Prior knowledge:
There is one protein chain. By secondary structure, this protein is α/β, with parallel strands linked by helices. Helices cover 41% and strands 11% of the residues. It is built from 13 helices and seven strands. The protein has helices at 3-17, 24-40, 44-49, 61-73, 77-85, 119-128, 151-166, 191-194, 212-223, 249-258, 276-284, 303-313, 327-333; strands at residues 104-108, 133-139, 172-180, 199-203, 230-231, 262-266, 289-292. β3 (172-180), α8 (191-194) and β4 form a beta-alpha-beta unit. The structure holds zinc ion (2 copies). One zinc ion is lined by residues 107, 109, 178, 232, 294.
Amino acid sequence: MDAVAAAQALSxxxxxxRQNPEEVFRAKAFSAAAWSIAISRPDIEALHKAKxxxxxxxxxxxxxxxxxxxxxxGQSRYLERLRTDTGQPARDDExxxxxxxxxxxxxxxxxxxxxxxxxxxxxxxxxxxxxKYLGITDHSPRIKVVNGLDAERLLAQSKELADVQAQLEGLxxxxxxxxxxLEDGALDLPDMVLELxxxxxxxxxxxxxxxxxxMTERMLRAVSHPHVDIIGHPTGRRPGSRxxxxxxxxxxxxxxxxxxxxxxxxxxxxxxxxxxEMARLAFECGCNFSLxxxxxxxxxxxxxxxxxxxxxxxxxxxxxxxxxLDVDELASALR
Length: 335
Ligand SMILES: [Zn+2]
Ligand SMILES: [Zn+2]
C-alpha cells in the first residue's frame, strides 16, 4: 500500500468517527495523521519493516497499529467496523480515481482574503504537486471577517496574478472568486464583475438554517445564474459540528446539471461536502463535479489526495470531474 492510499483510509476513519460527537478528538487525530502522510508521502512499507511507523508526524501508537495492518493486509478491520456501525459500507460499484491524472485544483484562497499564504506561495505549492492549474478563488465582500474582495480589490488582485503568472512555467493561474450566495439566491458581486473572471464558485456560507422551501429557491437561483461555474460545498455542513442546509436536493441538482454547473466535493476534512451519498444523488441527476482542497495554505492542497475516496465511494467516474480536464478543456468547460 502506498502512502496516499493509507492517507485515504485514515481520512475515512476520521470522517466516520466524526459522526459520533464523543469521538471528535480521535477523529481529528486520524484526519491530522492522514494529512501529515498525504503531505510527506513517507515510505510506509519501509517504516513498517523498521517498526518506525510512529515516527511519522501525527501518528501515535493507536494510529500506527491501524497503519501497520493497512501495510500488511491492505485493509483495516477498524475501518470496516466503523463502516458497518455507521451504515456506510463500501460499494460494489466504486469508481477508480487515478490521482496521477489530477490536473489541478480550482478552489483556493490567498492572503487577499482569509488565506494564510501569498498567491506566489500557493502557486509554488501547486507546482510542487505537478498541477497544471490553480484557481485563485478568494471570498467576496459580504463576509467582512475574511476581508472579502470587492470589484476594486479584484482588479488589484488581477495585477498581482499577472505578476505571479509571469514567474511560473508549467502552472496556469485562473482568476476566480468564491462568491457568497445571498439569502435570496442573488450573488454578492455584480454580473459585470463575475463575467470577467475565469472561474466563479458560488457557495452558501451563512443562513444555512433557512427553511427548506426558501433554501431551495435560493439554491435554484444560484445554479441558474449565467456566470456560476461551480457550487462550492453545496450543503455547508461540518461533519461532527454543524448540519448542512436542507433543501430539495434533487430539484437543485437537476437544475445544476441542466445549466452545466458543477458541484464541488470540498476535501477540507472539516467539510467533506458533498458527502458520498449526496454526491451519488448528484451524479444520478447528471451533474459534473469538482474535487478541490479549498486550501488556505499550500500544505492544505494535500486535502485532495486524502479525500478522493469520497468521489470513488460515490461511484463518480473521472470524466465527470473537472479537475481531470487539461487546461484548455477546463477553460471551455468553464465558459
Ligand atoms: Zn467556502
Ligand atoms: Zn473556499
